[in-house]
Amino acid sequence: MTDKIEKAAVGRLDHPFEVSSITRAEAPEGAVSANWYRYEIAQGANAIVGHREGSLQAVTQAVAEIVLRLNERRLGKAGRVHLTPGPKKNRGA
Q1: What's the domain range around 41?
Q2: What gap in Å lies between CA 11 and CA 6, rounded to an integer?
Q3: Is 12 helix (H, G, I), strand (E, B) or coil?
């Protein structure tokens, strides 16, 4: 059982999230702006598909930020410290 868990973890580390594509898309019904894009983020065989309003440059930047955060979460949060409470200090003495 442990071998399966370790292999699954290694597989996730081998396949970081990455932007697969960003293409122009039709605006959703009722949208004010007609400037919409469809993006796809892949991790191995897995895919995340989304839509975003804005210029191609703004959407590309936003999707790159999403990918960055997904990869940070995948690897664990850097810079987090597990604090353990120590004995209380006697402030009145």
Answers
A1: 2-75
A2: 9
A3: helix
